[in-house]
Amino acid sequence: MSTAAVAKSLGVSRRTLMRWVDQLDLQLTKNELGHYQFSDEDIEKIKQMQETPESASPQPKEQPRKGIVMSVSVDEDKTVELTNRIEELERKLQTKADDVVSYQLLQHRKEMEELIGTINKLEHRIEELESAQNRPEFSKDPALVFDHGQASKKPRRKGLISSILGF
C-alpha cells in the first residue's frame, strides 16, 4: 500500500505516519518512482503502536528549547583543550590585528614624509621666486640704458642743395 492509503486507513496524516515509521525504525521498500510501499506486517506494527498507550511507544528525541537549561556531562579534558584552542586563536587574531595596524601606521608615516618633502620643495621654490622678484632687474633694451643722461647732439648737416643755395 502507498503512504497516502495507509495514512487514510489509520486516520492520521502522512507526516504522522512517517514520524511513526522513523520511531519504529521500519525498513520500507520503494517503488520505481521512489515512493514508500507498506507491507501488511508494517501496517500491523504501526497499528499496534497506534493502539498502545503513549508511554509504551518510543518517544522522539527531544529538541532543546530556548530558555530551558539542560544539564550535560562534559569531559573536562575536552573542555580544557577547547579553551586552550580558543585562547590560542584569540592570541593569533590579536597578533594579526596588531600587524595590520603596524603596517598601516608605517604606510601613513611614509606618505606623511613624502608630503613633508614636497612641502619643503615648494617652500624653497617660493623663497627663490620671492627673492628673484625683489632683486632689481637690468633692462634688456640697450637704448633705455643710455637714456639716463643727456647725450650731446651733433649739429645737423643741412642738405647739400640748401647749403649751396644758402637757405
Automatic annotation (TrEMBL):
Protein location: Cytoplasm
Coiled coil: 72-132
Biased composition (Polar residues): 49-60
Domain HTH merR-type: 1-51
Pfam families, per the entry: MerR_1 (PF13411)
Protein's UniProt keywords contain Membrane: no
Record's keyword annotation contains ATP-binding: no
Positions of region (Disordered): 49-69
Annotated family: Belongs to the RacA family.
Name recorded for this polypeptide: Chromosome-anchoring protein RacA
Taxonomic source organism: Metabacillus halosaccharovorans
Gene from which the chain derives: racA
